[in-house]
Design goal:
The structure holds two protein chains of two kinds. By secondary structure, chain A is mostly beta strands. Helix content of chain A is 0%, strand content 56%. In chain A, the strands form two sheets. In chain A, strands 2, 4, 5, 9, 10 and 11 form a six-stranded mixed sheet that branches. In chain A, strands 1-3-8-7-6 form a five-stranded antiparallel sheet, with no helix packed on it. Chain B starts with a strand and ends with a strand. Classes of the chains: A mainly beta, B mainly beta.
């Protein structure tokens, strides 16, 4: 089955800096890669996703890149703000959905 | 604004008791997932259904957990008997999958087994 690894587990940045979270996956059949943001006590919410026929996708301050050959994908957040502080999960889907262990991002004002 | 709903939102029970959690997926979605979230394990896939048929429940302890979809508007996750190690937040998520696609999470059920 699919195995997703996510790094780093914690990340602290200064407001305005960029943050990068990386994930690798094992199943070459995976073709859908979403990213979720989870604030304390709340449900995970989809923030951006990418499909296997695209190498990069951007939505305002967030972007995701995918390298299918190397089986890794990354989340990039630019101009970070304190409200970006949360746990971020990557996932990969061949048919089901397997999640990485999460990255706790702290943006210091 | 369609959302996945889950009941109950919180449940405290004693070890050995039966627990049933319910999920109403977004109308029209054909795939339902059950996840368990603990501090140590992150989001762990327990089971998922497509068009009400169970596709994978390999993440569930079979001796005590069971998942069903009696109809397209209701998914249930049952634990019998419950144990303290089952304490976690249980999330349901739904999506409309042709091949793959985004899924939307419910608010979760926070289960505490004493």
């Amino acid at each position: 089955g699919e195995n997703v690894e996510q790094h780093p587990s914690t990340l602290s940045v200064q407001e305005g800096d960029s943050a990068v979270i990386k994930c690798t996956y094992s199943d070459s059949a995976s073709n859908y890669f979403p990213w979720y943001k989870q604030e304390l006590g709340k449900r995970p919410q989809l923030i951006i996703d990418i499909r296997s026929n695209v190498g990069e996708k951007k939505d305002q301050r967030i972007a995701v890149t995918l390298n299918k050959t190397a089986k890794h994908f990354s989340l990039h957040i630019t101009e970070t703000q304190p409200e970006d502080s949360a746990v971020y999960f990557c996932a990969a889907s061949p048919n089901d959905m397997r999640f990485g262990a999460g990255t706790r991002l702290t943006v210091k004002p | 604004d369609a959302r996945v709903t889950q009941t109950p939102r919180h449940k405290v029970t004693e070890m050995g008791q039966e627990v049933t959690m319910r999920c109403q997926p977004i109308l029209g979605h054909n795939t339902v997932f059950w996840y368990r979230q603990t501090m140590m394990q992150g989001l762990e896939l327990l089971a998922y259904f497509r068009n009400r048929a169970p596709l994978d429940d390999s993440g569930m302890p079979k001796d005590r957990f069971s998942a069903e979809m009696p109809d397209a508007t209701l998914a249930t996750l049952k634990i019998q008997p419950s144990e303290p190690r089952d304490s976690a937040v249980y999330f349901c998520a739904s999506g409309f999958f042709l091949v793959e696609g985004e899924q939307y999470f419910g608010p979760g059920t926070r289960l505490t087994v004493t």
